Amino acid sequence: MKPPTFRTKISILALAALTLLGGSLWSYPGASPALAGMSAQKAAKSPAVSPGKGNAQQAFPESAPVPVSEALSQRVAEYHIDVKLDPETATLKGAETVTWNHPGRKPVSDLYFHLYPNAFESRNTTFMKESGGELRSDKMPDNGFGSMTLTDVRTSEGTSLIQRVQYVQPDDGNINDRTLVKLHLPEPVNGGESVTLKLQFEVKLPKVFARMGIAGNFVMAGQWFPKISVYEPVGTRGVTQEGWNLHQYHGTSEFYSDFGIYNVTIAVPPEYTVAATGFPVKTAKLKQNQKIYQFYADDVHDFAWAASPDFVVTEEAFSTPEVPGVRIKLYLDPLHKDLKERYFQAAKAALSAFSKWYGPYPYSTLSIVVPPKDANGAGGMEYPTLITAFGASESSPDTSLERTVVHEIGHQYFYGMLASNEFEEAWLDESFTSYAEDRLMEQEYGVMANLPIQASLVTSPQALTLETWKYSGADAYTQNVYLRGKLVLKDIERQVGTKTMDAILSTYANKYRFRHPTTRDFQKVVENVTKKSWQNYFDLYIYDGGAPDFSIDDIQMRTKENAGTGQGYESIVKVSNRGSHYANVPIKFTFSDGHTVERVWNGDNKNTAFQLISSSPLLSAEIDPQHTLLLENKHINNFRLAEIKPDTLSRWTLTLSKLLETVLGTLVW
Ligand SMILES: [Zn+2]
Fold first, then answer.
1. What is the distance in A from the centroid of ligand 1 to the CA of 441?
2. Phi first, then psi: what are they for 410, rounded to 5°?
3. Catalytic positions (predicted)?
């Protein structure tokens, strides 16, 4: 997900810093390089699938179809869903046949499903209590509540299980939270076997403010169906005891699911157009005053769709040596109908570069939905093979348009294919995606991230491996999971070099493709590629919220007679690190005659002192003048002027004001 707080809330927070330090979150040095000429080289491959029957409303869909494409993932869950949208009542009615292939060994007696729309059921759900009914800068509109009801649950033999439905709250015991449900099975499922359930459900769509819902005649159906939780066999994400990974829907958390197959039939009013995960199995057809779509997707871990009568639809085929063939489909809000080239360009640049860096994009479609302005809460969000851009609020937006598209396409890797647990290790999605986004924005659009400014926004450094609701607040979550994690990756890159960093990320992305990697898996890749231990670094800055804080504490200067050269000066400069250990700290000393001396402190102790003998008085000392220490967020104590009496200084070639200008002119953090 893209946090617009970087454009709004944090920008406001940062105003003081920006004014004080000069600069902005992003900078535009020189002219923007044009996009590389990338045009479709061949048509996208056509979908390889044998779709099933079964799109009658109210009846359970059949679980007959079998994909003919080679499985890229372990397809644990298989969904066949028929859903009907009624915009008048803002409801979805669905019938779902789900087959769960037990990936572990022990008999399992209970299945668990996420009923995410229940996050919006009342003010007392865990999501609403934690978020205060606000996500990013979007607030829940009046009477914006929504919910999901299971109306029928049966085994494949027809035995009703509806009386066995039990809501559970493993994270906080909040009995008003019904986002996670337990279903006790009549008979246990053994490891390696499968079980099929048939569910009927209704969704009362919330008004859009947090990813899903309805706004006018626009509908974003994300997290809209009962979705089975992830069962982790021994070894998955390092677990030593197999079992369910169970979490409620939280104010800051996103999602975690198993890979599988989706065969989804969507009925909407005739004037509506539907965008969805996967590809349409056949042309939408009109039947009984409904327009019926059928989509299929495999090797994905979620399925989302959007519908509107206003979409301006356009699509292009695209391929490169690393992108086997994809149809990019745009579903634009009419306000952005003239901006399609910008969306296509950004999408092509992202697909092309990320496929080169992180492995081929293996899907045959990528859909981009541009919501209307009043559905901005649905914007800037990733789903498998479908992303949303920010809501269209102006006809000529700045490069945040491209940045959002690039970011969400980045998530096709760090979320889509590298399906981390976003409840527990959200940085593996957001920081990695933000890192990739910065690289591409710099390469394609010449927009540089102002990392020292961004670092100064991290006022509450916390571990990157916290469960999302354990951060001290939504701001702290954003600061760490998006910004600090990205700075850690940039800091690793600074230490190992860009080429090695590229090798690290490429190895990680390719090795854990279609799996559920953890932070420890990433650490192992870093260590294997660089052939050294990173345990101390990870312990300080990733498994904990370490932050170095360097300070020039004191400057003492006295005159000293130099044999042969006459009067000279001896300066003692005391420096300290008030935060986490950090090696190789550059320090620059500037003298009144304009010359400078640079030293590197090895950072082994908390404090040290430098002695300098010079012929002109010391003017100032500055730690990290080039702002290479990306994890330091408190820059205010990095610089200190020596106290020089004006009459002493007057004998030197530069005046104090001139010197200050010289030094301060470079003071951009
Ligand atoms: Zn994101």
1. 15
2. -55, -35
3. 408 (proton acceptor), 482 (proton donor)
Residue that is last in its domain, among 225, 258, 291: 258
Check whether residue 244 and residue 133 sit in a common domain: yes
Question: Is 421 in contact with 516 (CB distance < 8 Å)?
Answer: yes
Residue type, 458: V
Query: Is 88 annotated in the active site?
Result: no
pLDDT digits (tens, 9 = 90+) for 192-207: 999 999 999 999 999 9
149/247 same-domain check: yes
What pLDDT does residue 566 have?
Answer: 72
The count of domains in the chain is: 3
DSSP three-state, residue 528: helix
3-class SS of residue 98? strand
Cα dihedral: 383, 389, 391, 394 (round 10): 180
* DSSP-assigned beta bridge partners for residue 501: none
CA distances from residue 307 to 5, 84, 387 in whole angstroms, order as listed: 27, 11, 14
408 is catalytic: yes
Handedness of CA 550, 553, 558, 561 (dihedral sign): negative
Note residues around ion ligand 1 (Cβ under 5 angstroms).
1, 430
With H, G, I as helix, E, B as strand and everything else as coil, classify residue 233.
coil
Separation CA 547–CA 529 (nearest Å):
25
In the block, residue with structure tokens 């969306």: 343
- 266: number of CA atoms within 13 Å, CB side? 35
What number of helices (H) and strands (E) belong to the chain? 14, 33
- Stretches where the chain sits below pLDDT 50 are 5-22, 29-57, 66, 649-669
Query: Which of 293, 363, 482, 537 is flagged as catalytic?
Result: 482
d(CA 627, CA 635): 9
Quick one: which of 345, 319, 327 has its CA closest to 440? 345
DSSP reduced 3-state for 490? helix
Q: Are residues 17 and 85 in the same domain?
A: no
Residue numbers of the domain that contains 602? 550-664
pLDDT tens-digit series, residues 447-483:
999 998 889 889 999 999 999 999 999 999 999 999 9
142, 199 contact by CB (below 8 A): no
Q: How many Å lie between the centroid of ligand 1 and the Cα of residue 254?
A: 10
Of 423, 388, 435, 432, the residue nearest 408 (C-alpha): 388
- Three-point CA angle 50, 55, 57, nearest 5°: 165
What pLDDT does residue 44 have? 34
Q: Crossing angle for the helix pair 485-496 and 498-511, nearest 10 degrees?
A: 120
Q: Are residues 99 and 239 in the same domain?
A: yes
Q: For residue 475, what is the domain's CATH number?
A: 1.10.390.10
Q: Which of helix, strand or coil describes residue 20?
A: helix
Question: What does residue 556 show for φ and ψ, rounded to 5 degrees?
Answer: -115, 135
Instruction: Tell me how far the alpha carbon of residue 238 is from its chain's centroid.
Output: 22
- 427 touches 480 (CB < 8 A): yes
444 a known binding residue?
no
Name the catalytic one among 96, 232, 408, 437. 408
Is 430 labelled as part of a ligand binding site? yes
Structural tokens at position 335: 């306000």
**What is the whole-number distance in angstroms between the Cα of residue 102 and the centre of ligand 1?**
30
Give the CATH number for residue 572.
2.60.40
- Comparing CA positions, the residue from 268, 289, 267, 293 lying closest to residue 278 is 293
